Model the fold of this input.
Amino acid sequence: MNQAIRHSWIAAVAMFALLFGALSFVQVVGADELKANPLNQRAILQNYCSDRGAIIVGGAPVAESVETGSETCKFQRTYPQPELYAGMTGYFSQNYGATGLERAMGEVLTGDSDQLFLDRVGQLFLGNQPKGASVELTIDPQLQELAYSLIPDGQRGSIVVTNPKTGAILAMASKPSYDPNKVAVQDPEAESANINELLKVPGINLNQNVSGPTGELLAPGSVYKLVDTAAALASGKYNADSVLPNPAEMPFDGISYRLPNYAGGNCYTRDTASFAFALQQSCNTPFASIALDLGRDAIASQAQKFGFGEDLGDQLKIGYARGDGFPNELDAPGLAQSAIGQKDVRATPLQINMMTSAIANDGVQMRPSLIKTLRSPDLRVIDEPQPEQLRTSTTPEIANQITDWMVSAVSEGIANRAGVPGIQVAGKTGTAELGNGTNNSWFTGFAPANNPQVSVTIAMEGVDISTGAQLTSPNAKKIFEAVLNK
Done:
């Protein structure tokens, strides 16, 4: 009998220990993971009708909770400028969860963050309803409106504007956009109907936590030649005086395919080219020859140093697509095509902007930042993220040399429509062929070249050559002027 009791006691203790351990893991170790799980709606249901903190741009809310006058659900989440900021704010829905900053900054907005512990205690002591903290963004509202307006309705495109010295995002716009108010309604039937209508719009993925600038992996085309240039100079085999082969077409052994220069440009006027001319006119064959000479690993290593396929840091606060860096196992034609931003090379507009900003910032890449300050309900600053270096992409000497060539691409080359009178602008255009007669058209650059204040990247998807030329460099000029003429 004593042995049976002993066994029962041991079994009971073991079961208790197992249960206690499981509860401890869920409440302590696994709590953050469970809160972040998009399938976990408990936190949303618990806080849906509470006074959630605002997301603020330029002193005005772009997401806020307003009183409903109802006792059953006292607050309703609203978005005063919905399409303009949807790519950043995301939405806060009772039945479909949260996306964007509404999700990433959820603990701060609901007041559950550890940074607000004393505020919660004070509110409970005074008998007040809990309030969330506000999140102020680095976005410049005038620049955001301008960037958004420069993308025509019906056109898929993205524009990113940053401060290359700090990593602060000044504007981040994309189309198509949507109205988060339609997903935040309290009527479940209306909410479901609105979701179904929005899902029919091409280019909108309401289930993702990224926007076009951070989530669209696009063929970068010739803006990727900046990677090749940095790799070439870093190798020691090339310098400012190097003469590059520039045949009209590059042949490959054993196949009929030939990689051509763009027939509509000036690359056909000479068989050899300087770096300055190759970048000014965006010739293909000189950069393909560099890649074949240096090999795949040299290009891939430089791409990694510019952040392709790498972590962007923790200041962005919204999801992003990393891409795969530079492709593996490339034959000669594949390496040549990849080196000019074609084949399987993919990057987001934000990533191209970060590469450009590293060149502008003497080779140092800063963490991209979207958060300016966090403020408690009494407007006290509880956090103010400071600029942080993310990685060193290249040397100051190489960055400055590439800057000089990018300046000549604007002053004398095919990026000339980005030029601003009286200001040195550094820029690079790109056209990635999509194989269906359309292209991804790019511009990326910064100004002033000798003391960069702003970095601009524009990507327009699925356009013809003429349309792409109209929507990239000229629009970059408008953004440069808007920043520098303040």
